[in-house]
């Protein structure tokens, strides 16, 4: 445990009231809200050279949002120009840039500043970056959970002589045409890039550990007339957004209240598979053995048709090792490939921020979370004063828009800052017993959900099988709980 006093600021440390980390939806949203509330003494530290977070980093072919854009956007910045129901990644990245400029957030951002550590110094935060130190009264993290790619540990991988990259770090310089490609993983990312690269590659070996459920994608282009209406009558777009919100919210009944309902939805996915995959053997390989919703429900109309093409082989035997020229599976078959693409997701329950953050007495977040990630309202952590975490534990969603959850948290954090100002408080730290009670409530609500009872393992669960990532009930409940900062739940100074 490093003592907080060991971390003295360099004399040129830049002092701000508030430091925000990250410029994805969370960090940009926080910055906009701070400015709107009249707080201007803040900086946003961003390790990259532009804004966008996971929507800047994930540029793989076919990348698009699987939540409708009218909902997957800020309520305070509707975009009448979305080209289709489920927007492609470049549009979402461009939207975030536009919001950054429209709300004049860019001057607050320090690009190329990677946060290396943050230490609570007794009455303020000291933040070390690769470009010097910052101090702040309040530290707000917008480092989302889908930021650090997860690489599987494959025996012999260092001997591989071909090209290797992760879907979140796509190698656009590499022309895949004519290549023999191994794709590892069949999650939300892979089902989007597999159909995009399949026509170009010579062979595609798809290493599937667990087949996902795939539903039809009800996408369509948004017409010029619709866009004009949204521009002219913003209330119409608001109504459409509300309709999408409530439609999605009704899904919570199946996911979290009565998982038996999911069996009905599963029939749609079964029919989709039946219609798109004619070969019974391949269909059997692609059929999941868990209840729909236990893992993230995927939507695609072109994944199964791509997988059924003659240049695609679905490999279901586990990977034994990698050789200089291919991948050997446990059945002894060697799959000759010259390119490996990981579609293996992100370090969601093993976040790098856990080692960066040192709270009271120098205790790291990893130490505080030795028995699983937990935070009051997914936002405040006992032992970490004046620190708030956006998209923290149990704020994730399987059915709706994360932007809704982020906006709930933004309101809560702003109310916390206002409460501090109104009462002359220098320090707020959630009471451990308040955090305990909240987390116990979340865990109890998790018991009957499809994520717990659906018969699968997923990245929603940590190494001890606890679901520390998802919000277990309706999102409007989260909105209610985060509407006001309750000072009595906090130790204050
Ligand atoms: O990652 P994943 P992703 N050997 O973790 C497999 C968001 N997202 O990048 O199921 C072999 O879902 C793993 O197998 P299994 C969204 O929240 C959003 O696809 O664990 N295979 C799985 O098939 C999503 O949930 C959009 O058995 C290994 C795959 O790799 C999240 O990002 C679009 C393996 C990983 O799937 C992550 O999605 C895209 C190993 N050692 C992504 N390790 C939107 O549209 C892992 N796998 C909003």
Would you give an account of this structure?
- The strands form 5 sheets. Strands 1, 2, 3, 4, 5, 6, 17 and 18 form an 8-stranded mixed β-sheet that branches. A 5-stranded parallel β-sheet has the order 7-16-8-9-12, with no helix packed on it. It has a 3-stranded antiparallel β-sheet with strand order 13-14-15, with no helix packed on it.
- It has 493 residues and is α/β, with parallel strands linked by helices.
- The site of 3-acetylpyridine adenine dinucleotide has 22 residues, from loops.
- Terminal CA distance reads 25 Å
Give the low-pLDDT segments.
1-5
Which oligomerization state do the chains in this entry correspond to?
A: single chain
Relevant CATH superfamily of the largest domain: FAD/NAD(P)-binding domain
Radius of gyration: 23 Å
Number of helices: 16
**Assigned CATH architecture of the largest domain:** 3-Layer(bba) Sandwich
Number of domains: 2
CATH topology of the largest domain: FAD/NAD(P)-binding domain
Number of strands: 20
Structural class by helix and strand composition:
alpha/beta
- Note the overall shape: globular
CATH class type of the largest domain: Alpha Beta
How confident overall, as mean pLDDT?
Answer: 96
Question: What key attributes describe this structure?
Answer:
single chain, 493 residues, alpha/beta, FAD/NAD(P)-binding domain, 2 domains, 8-stranded mixed sheet, 5-stranded parallel sheet, 17% strand, globular, disordered N terminus, binds 3-acetylpyridine adenine dinucleotide, Cation diffusion facilitator CzcD-associated flavoprotein CzcO, FAD/NAD-bd_sf, FAD-bind_Monooxygenase_sf
């Amino acid at each position: 445990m490093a003592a907080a006093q060991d971390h003295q600021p360099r004399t040129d440390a830049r002092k701000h009231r508030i430091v925000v980390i990250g410029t994805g939806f969370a960090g940009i949203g926080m910055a906009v809200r701070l400015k709107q509330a009249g707080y201007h003494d803040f900086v946003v530290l961003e390790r990259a050279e532009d804004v966008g977070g996971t929507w800047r980093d994930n540029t793989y072919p076919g990348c698009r949002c699987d939540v409708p854009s009218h909902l997957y956007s800020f309520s305070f910045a509707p975009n009448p120009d979305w080209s289709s129901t489920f927007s492609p990644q470049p549009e979402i990245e461009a939207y975030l840039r536009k919001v950054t400029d429209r709300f004049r957030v860019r001057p607050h951002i320090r690009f190329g500043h990677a946060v290396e550590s943050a230490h609570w110094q007794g009455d303020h935060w000291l933040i070390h970056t690769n470009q010097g130190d910052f101090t702040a009264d309040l530290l707000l993290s917008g480092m989302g959970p889908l930021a650090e790619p997860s690489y599987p540990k494959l025996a012999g991988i260092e001997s591989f002589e071909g090209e290797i990259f992760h879907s979140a770090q796509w190698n656009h310089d590499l022309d895949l045409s004519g290549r023999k490609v191994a794709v590892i993983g069949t999650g939300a990312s892979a089902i989007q890039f597999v159909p995009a690269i399949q026509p170009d590659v010579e062979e595609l070996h798809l290493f599937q550990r667990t087949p996902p459920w795939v539903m039809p994608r009800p996408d369509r282009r948004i017409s010029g007339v619709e866009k004009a209406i949204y521009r002219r009558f913003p209330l119409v777009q608001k109504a459409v957004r509300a309709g999408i919100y409530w439609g999605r919210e009704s899904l919570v009944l199946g996911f979290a209240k009565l998982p038996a309902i999911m069996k009905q939805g599963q029939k749609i996915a079964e029919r989709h598979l039946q219609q798109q995959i004619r070969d019974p053997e391949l269909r059997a390989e692609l059929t999941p053995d868990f209840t729909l919703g236990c893992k993230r429900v995927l939507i695609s109309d072109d994944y199964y048709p791509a997988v059924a093409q003659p240049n695609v082989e679905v490999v279901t035997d586990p990977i034994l090792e990698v050789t200089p020229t291919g991948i050997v599976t446990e059945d002894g078959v060697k799959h000759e490939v010259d390119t490996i693409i990981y579609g293996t997701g992100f370090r969601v329950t093993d976040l790098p921020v856990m080692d960066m953050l040192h709270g009271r007495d120098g205790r790291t977040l990893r130490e505080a979370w030795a028995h699983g990630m937990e935070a009051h309202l997914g936002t405040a952590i006992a032992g970490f004063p004046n620190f708030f975490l956006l998209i923290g534990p149990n704020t994730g969603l399987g059915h709706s828009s994360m932007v809704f959850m982020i906006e709930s948290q933004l309101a809560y954090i702003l109310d916390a800052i206002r409460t501090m100002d109104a009462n002359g408080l220098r320090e707020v730290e959630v009471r451990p017993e308040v955090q305990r009670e909240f987390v116990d409530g979340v865990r109890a609500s998790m018991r009957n959900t499809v994520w717990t009872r659906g018969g699968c393992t997923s990245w929603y669960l940590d190494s001890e099988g606890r679901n520390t990532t998802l919000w277990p009930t309706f999102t409007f409940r989260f909105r209610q709980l985060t509407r006001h900062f309750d000072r009595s739940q906090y130790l204050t100074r």
